[in-house]
Amino acid sequence: MITITEQKPLEEVIQSLETHQGIYLIGCGTCATMLHTGGKSEVLEMKDKLEAAGKKVTGWMVISTACDVLTKDALRENAKDIEVADAILVVACAFGAQTVTLYADKPVYPALNTLFIGKEESPGYFIEVCLQCGSCVLAQTAGICPLVRCSKSLLNGPCGGSVGGKCEIDPDIPCAWQLIYDRLAALGQLDKLEEIEPVKDWSTSHSGGPRKITIET
């Protein structure tokens, strides 16, 4: 399981650093390195881009796991270069950026967008497995998450548009509620389908089924 990230547009990064001249760069040796979004190569590439934009990069490092408590020690070891910087740009996930913030007295900015928690189903192919919605319904749905697996994130049964057990939005995606029904039937728990799940606030939701990404290996 890894945190899936993508690089922010350079214009957005530069804008966030608008009032800062000296920048210290921090990458991550785990998830971001695996995804080629924040490893050594990407940090050095960002260094070149910032310098081309007129910024001064006071130093850089790739922490083995940016979201780990050992980040505190890494910052201490590189305190000299960090001290002369105006801000820190973290080329890692949001958790990594927040971890750096805990131990730094400089403004901290993210260079990446954090997308989802992914499972590697095959080399370089990651698929979302949990929305981290804060209100788990797996007890009612036979351990199959309808929020992630259903393209419409339906909580109370199928939409009626599936064909042959496949989603009407994407025929390559199994209908989540067909999977749920089949498993509940096998477990002798079809009565759970009669339970109504309360309405959720979907103002910040996504759509289109489980998010996924393929990277070059």
Secondary structure topology:
Elements: E1 2-7, H1 10-16, E2 22-28, H2 31-34, H3 40-52, E3 56-63, H4 71-77, H5 79-83, E4 87-91, H6 94-103, E5 108-110, E6 112-122, E7 125-130, H7 146-149, H8 176-187, E8 212-214
Parallel strand pairs: 2-3, 2-4, 4-5
Antiparallel strand pairs: 1-6, 6-7, 7-8
Description:
- By secondary structure, the chain is an alpha/beta fold.
- The protein has two domains: 2-116, Rossmann fold (3-Layer(aba) Sandwich), CATH 3.40.50; 123-214, no CATH class.
- It is 29% helix and 23% strand.
- The protein contains eight helices and eight strands.
- The chain has helices at residues 10-16, 31-34, 40-52, 71-77, 79-83, 94-103, 146-149, 176-187, and strands at 2-7, 22-28, 56-63, 87-91, 108-110, 112-122, 125-130, 212-214.
- The protein has a four-stranded antiparallel β-sheet with strand order 1-6-7-8.
- A hairpin with a 2-residue loop joins strand 6 and strand 7 (125-130).
- The longest helix has 13 residues, at 40-52.
- The protein is elongated, with a radius of gyration of 21 Å.
- The two termini are 17 Å apart.
- The relative contact order is 0.15.
- The model has no long low-confidence stretch (mean pLDDT 90).
